[in-house]
């Protein structure tokens, strides 16, 4: 029998950011259990887009904090984590122009650096892009792209330096509770038992396997996300990451010049098993990507598909995370990050440490109640204040 002050289940970006944030605040008697190898889950598949363009103020503020950490990662975590501030732009058509401006006003009120630019301005940044069906763009000069895997591994290394113990190939199979219904420990598949009175579940859609036996109906499931890598036939230089809310897609240029294309149309979600999903884009998806890109980049001379892969978002009904205590005392949830978990991770670590140690968020711009588990049962999901028509809640 082992003991720990805190056991974190899940060695992905969130679990590792939480471990580091707790350790920074002096809680170093922590065990992180990872059933596979570190950052091999959703973190490994992340497009790692950095943006603050959210319609939920807490999320925008959390993403803004994330940028500060990514930009100063060598000082904060002791390693460059691959953040590139190439800029992030979100483009909308006429029907979403008012929502865009309302969101920009909200983001500016939080101190986020953001500006509205015209389609012609955008053309100057992405010369081959057809912008005729956009009404405006929001540009975040400090947005861009990072590297979720490198960031997670930097958190792991920094947490280890504080003395955090990280166990790989260690699957948590049972959460034990005492007569008082409080958690009292974790057992792994190998029979290793760790006594603790605080367990943080940071294991995405896999968390339900541990919460269901405790009678907790956690509404988190895996949604397959397909990514297609393409070439343009052009010499593409650095350009902002673009969320195209007209075509419902996003794209960003890799160092190699290839373009990563992701889907932003979540009107027909494909829920799946996070252990057995198909790890390539379907032929139909590749065809849709080709059609959308032909429309968006008609001047590309030799467009072609390089390869594809798929990952799983761990989604909740409102596409926003659950960060807070579970109905079982001592059990804490940090799951359901959907397509947001990379950019939010530094703030998630900080928030979980705040809640476990102080019971409240230390950032006045981040209302921890937004992320409470009970919001689903209460019928009060966390929704954008200024929603985009056609873009679903993943925005
Ligand atoms: C295709 C794709 C694109 C994305 N793009 C972006 C983006 O551009 N920007 C952005 O901000 N976010 C993006 N995201 C989201 C972001 O990557 C995730 O939200 C984030 O990486 C999730 O981290 P996590 O630690 O919660 O989950 P994971 O990385 O999945 O980690 C959970 C870990 O728990 C482990 N585990 C599971 N069960 C157990 C158990 N019983 N015992 C021990 N360990 C267990 C798993 O092996 C896994 O390693 C994207 C996600 C995907 C899939």
UniProtKB/TrEMBL annotation:
InterPro entries: FAD-dep_OxRdtase, FAD/NAD-bd_sf. It comes from the Bacteria. Residues 6-355 form the FAD dependent oxidoreductase domain. Keywords: Oxidoreductase. Pfam families: DAO. The keyword Oxidoreductase applies. PANTHER family: FAD-DEPENDENT OXIDOREDUCTASE DOMAIN-CONTAINING PROTEIN 1, SARCOSINE DEHYDROGENASE-RELATED. This is FAD-binding oxidoreductase. It comes from Fodinicola feengrottensis. The lineage of its organism: Bacteria, Bacillati, Actinomycetota, Actinomycetes, Mycobacteriales.
């Amino acid at each position: 029998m082992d003991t720990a002050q805190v056991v974190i289940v899940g060695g992905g970006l969130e679990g590792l950011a939480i471990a580091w944030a707790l350790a920074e605040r002096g809680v170093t008697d922590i065990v992180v259990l990872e059933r596979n190898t570190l950052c091999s889950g959703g973190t490994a598949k992340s497009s790692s887009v950095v943006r603050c363009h959210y319609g939920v103020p807490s999320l925008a503020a959390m993403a803004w904090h994330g940028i500060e950490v990514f930009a100063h990662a060598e000082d904060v975590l002791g390693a460059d984590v691959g953040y590139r501030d190439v800029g992030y732009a979100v483009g909308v058509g006429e029907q979403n122009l008012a929502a865009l401006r309302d969101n920009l006003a909200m983001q500016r009120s939080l101190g986020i650096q953001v500006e509205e630019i015209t389609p012609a301005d955008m053309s100057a940044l992405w010369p081959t892009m057809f912008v005729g069906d956009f009404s405006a763009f929001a540009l975040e000069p400090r947005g861009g792209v990072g590297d979720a895997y490198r960031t997670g591994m930097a958190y792991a290394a920094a947490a280890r330096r504080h003395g955090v113990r990280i166990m790989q190939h260690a699957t948590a199979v049972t959460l034990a509770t005492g007569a008082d219904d409080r958690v009292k420990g974790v057992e792994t598949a190998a029979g290793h038992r760790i006594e603790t009175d605080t367990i943080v579940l940071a294991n995405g859609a896999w968390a339900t396997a541990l919460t269901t036996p405790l009678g907790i109906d956690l509404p988190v499931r895996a949604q397959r996300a397909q990514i297609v890598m393409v070439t343009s036939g052009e010499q593409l230089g650095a350009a902002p990451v673009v969320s195209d809310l007209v075509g419902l897609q996003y794209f960003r240029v890799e160092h190699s010049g290839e373009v990563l294309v992701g889907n932003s149309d979540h009107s027909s979600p494909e829920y799946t098993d996070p252990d057995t999903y198909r790890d390539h884009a379907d032929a139909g998806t590749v065809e849709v990507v080709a059609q959308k890109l032909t429309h968006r980049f008609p001047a590309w001379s030799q467009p072609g598909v390089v390869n594809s892969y798929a990952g799983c978002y761990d989604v909740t009904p409102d596409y926003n995370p659950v960060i807070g205590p579970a109905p079982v005392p001592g059990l804490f949830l940090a799951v359901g990050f959907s397509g947001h978990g990379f950019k939010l991770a530094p703030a998630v670590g900080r928030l979980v440490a705040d809640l476990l140690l102080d019971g409240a968020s230390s950032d006045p711009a981040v209302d921890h109640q937004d992320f409470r588990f009970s919001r689903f049962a209460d019928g009060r999901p966390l929704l954008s204040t200024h929603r985009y028509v056609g873009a679903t809640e993943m925005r």
